[in-house]
């Protein structure tokens, strides 16, 4: 009878343990303050990628660049670990820079000179308002939240953020040239998708129309004494693996550019990899691509390797014309660094020859009581006396 009791107890506790283990590392988590929405997407073990979507604001100042912006946008991505019900930032992965939209157009003071606008890096993008309500929508699992709301770290299934803005020429806060809609969507089963739609309010020339960018450090935090976070890249439509270690500082696109630096109209995804076990990719899902557009990598020799999707190249856009794109950000792999001791914990990865005791969080324990533990890579139940 006692043996049957032990077997039933073991089965029940094991069932509970498996259920807890499946949910211990949620696929998607979120926390929010009035100025930041922090999205955490699960990698493996206790590792997450942290996507900050920040509120950026700067009032218009004459002759100042950038200025005249009030919008939300992706900030610097970070590697995080989930420890004791908290997210801990381990290291920054991305260099600052605009991720969603950058249009190179004539500036308002001298139309022979082209300047980028969009977001906070280049400015001149303002959230619009209707009936005294700002045009931004924040939906988490179907529930709507306001900009001023706070959310503690929580598990979720779907996050969708949408905003409507007006775009102005550089050095101007009047006569906008376009309406812009941006949408960020992520689910527990899919990667981050960014949709951007530009509706022209008047004719304007576009020298470059970048509708998706991923700016990854070459070395951790740009420290060239460290290993490469990204040092090679490849396209979806080529077998060639390109070396990014040499770098180049000139981002002007000339006809002699070659390899992964030259814009490729037919390419729909570029992936970068390095020596820490992570990969970063930008994938074009859908776009109204124009002649002269394409994907390429721009590199700064001491700082970053940046993937671009340039939709337009040199293009004369017309009033009422709509330019739109949907891109996907793909961050994959497991970060590992013996020098700094950064690693991930997963109960299934504990060495099968390790006779020490661990709890279900992968933490070593010296004294065991009643409960479920891991030893030699396997779970067992200590029922006590």
Layout: helices, strands, pairs:
Blueprint: H1 2-24, E1 28-33, E2 36-42, E3 47-58, E4 69-74, E5 78-83, E6 86-92, E7 102-106, E8 114-117, E9 125-127, E10 129-130, E11 133-134, E12 136-140, E13 143-145, E14 151-155, E15 158-167, E16 178-187, E17 190-200, E18 204-206, E19 208-217, E20 232-235, E21 241-243, E22 269-273, E23 278-287, E24 294-299, E25 304-310, E26 315-317, E27 322-333, E28 357-358, E29 364-365, E30 371-375, E31 378-382
Antiparallel strand pairs: 1-2, 1-14, 2-3, 3-4, 3-5, 5-6, 7-8, 7-19, 9-15, 10-11, 12-13, 12-15, 15-16, 16-17, 17-27, 18-26, 19-25, 20-21, 20-22, 22-23, 23-27, 24-25, 28-29, 30-31
Radius of gyration of CA atoms, rounded to a whole number: 24 Å
Helix content: under 10%
Task: Report the top-level CATH class of the largest domain.
Answer: Mainly Beta
**C-alpha termini separation:** 16 Å
State the CATH architecture of the largest domain: Distorted Sandwich
CATH fold group of the largest domain: Beta-galactosidase, Chain A, domain 5
Strand content: over 45%
Mean pLDDT: 86
Oligomeric assembly: single chain
Largest sheet: 11 strands, antiparallel
Please report the total strand number as a whole number.
31
Summing up helix and strand content along with how strands pair, one would put the structural category as mainly beta
Number of structural units classed as domains: 2
Could you name the ranges where pLDDT drops below 50 across 5 or more consecutive residues?
10-22, 344-352
Number of contiguous helices: 1
